[in-house]
Amino acid sequence: MNHVTVIKSFSLRSFFLTLFFSTLLFGIMACFYWRSQDLGEPLNLMEYAWLYVFLTFFGMLQWLFQKEILVKLTGRQAPAARTQKPSAAMSPESDTDRKQRHNHEQRLFVHLFSVLQREGRLMDFLQEDLSLYEDGQIGAAVRSIHENCKKTVDRYLSPEPVMKHAEGETVEIAAGFDQHAVKLVGNVVGQPPFSGILRHRGWQLRSISLPKLSEAENPKLIAPAEVEIQ
Questions:
Q1: Rounded-to-integer distance, Cα 66 and Cα 61, Å
Q2: Element (H, E) at 194
Q3: Structural domain total, the chain
Q4: For a designed S-S bond to 175, which of 105, 192, 212, 222 qualifies (C-beta 3.0 to 4.6 A apart)?
């Protein structure tokens, strides 16, 4: 039961209790006056009515003070309970946890490069000085690297074009298109639908199935060095 329900229940019950005890006290005092007045005229009906109003008035004052005290007490306890819950649920992040989270984020970024290096030697090719080789030698090396990297990407990422049309074809862009998936360039005026030439089909992933993330402590490591012991 929350504090609002408690206040309403208390107010209703205490109100009727105040009326009951005010009426009971009035009856006791009226009986006392009626029996004790041997001299003089007894109280008339109007005087009894004013006596009842007087007792009820002070009973209502007591009821209002009690209600106000209850409201203040519940108002102090409720915010304290609300402020204690978040503090108990949220604990400060330690330096060790912060470092581990940062390393994990770096590993996620480097992970794909690690897979392409392992399967297709992509980083070896990108860091190679191609000016030392003839075009024919470069072409033969690129063919092997391209084949291995393409197999890796197809296996783990399953890429597909955003738009199925061939580049150079005229395409229609309807209203409500995904502005993140389709980038409009050139003379973009007015509102869709638009008609334009497809310059690049774009790429998106049909599915993602990367291998298990490496547990290496060094988040910057792409591939370890290999040393053959003779």
A1: 9
A2: strand 194-197
A3: 3
A4: 192
Q: Which of 71-80, 86-95, 114-123 has the highest mean pLDDT?
A: 114-123
Q: Is 227 inside a domain boundary?
A: no
Q: Which of 105, 153, 144, 154 has its CA nearest to residue 124?
A: 144
Residue 121 CA to residue 69 CA, distance in Å, equals 77
Contact present, 111 and 84 (Cβ < 8 Å): no
- Global confidence as pTM: 0.47
Alpha helix stretches (DSSP H) within 121-215 = 122-126, 135-156
Query: pLDDT digit string (tens) for 100-120?
Result: 777 777 777 777 778 888 888
169 close to 198: Cβ distance less than 8 angstroms? yes
- Dist. CA 214–CA 116, nearest whole Å: 14
Q: Where are the beta strands (DSSP E) in 23-105?
A: none
Is residue 215 included in any domain, yes or no? yes
**Domain C-terminal end among 59, 86, 113:** 86
Residue 59 CB partners (closer than 8 Å, separation 6+): 18, 19, 21, 22
Q: Give the closest residue to 6 by CA, choosing from 111, 78, 61.
A: 78
Last residue of a domain, one of 42, 62, 86: 86
> In terms of residue numbers, what domain contains 8?
3-86
CA dihedral 151, 157, 163, 166 (to 10 degrees): -10
Over the Cα atoms of the chain, what is R_g?
Answer: 43
Range of lowest pLDDT (18-32, 38-52, 55-69, 78-92): 78-92
Tokens 């209502």 appear where?
60
The enclosing H or E element of 173 equals strand 170-173
Q: Of 144, 110, 147, 142, nearest to 223 (Cα)?
A: 110
